[in-house]
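Section 5.1 Outputs to date
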Amino acid sequence: MEKILDHIDSPQALRELKQKALRGVCNEIREYMIDCCSTNPGHLGASLGAIELIVGLHYVYNTPKDKIVYDVSHQAYAHKILTGRKEAFRKNRMKEGISGFTRMEESPYDAFGAGHSSTSISAALGFAAAARIKNSGEKAIALIGDGALTGGMAYEGLNNAGIGGEDILIILNDNNISIDQGIGALHNYLLKVTTNPTYNTTKDKVWNLLGEGKFRRFIQKSVRTTKSFFVKYPKGGFFEAMGFRYFGPIDGNNIDEVVDALKKLKDIKGPKILHAITTKGKGYSPAEEDQTTWHAPGLFDAASGKRTSSKNKGDRYQDVFGEVLLELARKDARVVGVTPAMASGCGMNILAEEMPERFYDVGIAEEHAVTFSAALAAGGMIPFCNIYSSFAQRAYDQIIHDCALQKLPVILCFDRAGLVGEDGATHHGAFDIAAFRSIPNICIAAPADEKELKNLLYTATLHKEGPFIIRYPRGFGEGIAWRESEFESLPVGKARLVLQNEAPAINLVAEGPCVKAALQAAQELEKSRGLRARVIDIRFIKPMDTDCLKKAAEDCKLFLSIEDGCLKGGLYGALCEWAMNEKNHIQIESLGLPDRFVEQGTQKELRRGCGIDCDGILAKLKELL
């Protein structure tokens, strides 16, 4: 049976349809998205919930001239399908496929790239200001979720947009689904009144006649107070207090309501908020019933909704972290957990379930999470602040000024360090070593396996001289038994000899997940070429074990650094600095992430591409030797 979606290769084609056909378009997008994501995993839940909003936006606005900015943009799958990338969507997030997020270089319809939260309002405001200066008539719309509004940058954008008077529409995609249905009818009634063109024209004329004096401010305050009294919904009052005209809420999963509201709002000037209530996972019952799991469910059967279990026999690093954190909290009442909205993703939900009074989810607010943790440490607690490595970039200032400068023992756990895989350039934890290695009073460690992570977490609780960073990768560990082992305090700044060979042909200095690959390559080198290599698990990148390196250099001056991070400023940079200070003709070669943003693909594919898997290391060894 022929589908409407088969004839939509651009928003222009969508706009040629009658409005009554849009419901069918939404249904077809939903079916297509579920079908594609069942075999090629992605961020399904958020995208299912935003379909009607995205279809409505492209139907009402003249994209790509009008600019739609998506916050985070993992909800933009419908946008990709409608903008000429329907077939390409089958390779969404794959190596050499399209990105799972908006990217300016991928399509003219991707007005602004995104991957991290809370940026859309600031970006849309920039487009609105540029349109006014150019007098181009372009519209600027930000689509932001209620979760992203916990990020401080969103408030900075709101504060600026509310006083600037630029023509900007912010759509609040609220999927919290906790709206009182009794009041909802009143909201819908007020929406019809306040979006009426005659009402808004009259309101503008009256406002202009009142001028800028005290009487206008009195009337404005009275109107807001009266509306807040009748609406009894705090978000409207909050936004209007910041200078926005608030409309809604509407049913964001009702395409007719969405289109009707957008048509009326399109020609209302100035800063505006449209509040849309949506359901995350809308239209697919498994995703609606378990919204957390189905945010990014992995592989599943589209018909039954049954998820495919992993074939890995090991434990995920996030689960190791979560279980060890709980064990440490049981042993020490000072241990607390802090996360910026990543409780299940980082494994801190394990602590939250048993000890909710010692768990803090601060929302998408990395800066606040770090400073809050710093004060917890100053107050005598032992805070574990778990932030994805790439998100920790947002808290750079707080880590320097609030933690390191004051020598506060905050334990910063950087989950998803190194190459994360299909989420691509915005999510790879490529820069943490280079970013934080130069900061005084900071310790940086990288576990080679699950047991080492467990012991580093314990060691960090004993460290009192400043922040203790532990970086570890996304996904499964090496299959090392760790649960039954006793806690071991590791000497800070000391490396571990994994393979000790006297008079080797080369010294391999590796960190984190590269240690196992280096050991495998060394064993294969000796087996195939008869050449021996020494393998050093550097473990602590700062402070670095220079004594171990000096001893290794006594019988071999050739070193190869291997790291799951950027080469510039990373472990390679640290080794080069040490070698230059030694003035002993030490040669440092390197493998790691190149000086470019690495695109998406599986972790295995990307590690192979960067040469940090066993085969890549072996190839480099054969080249050097």
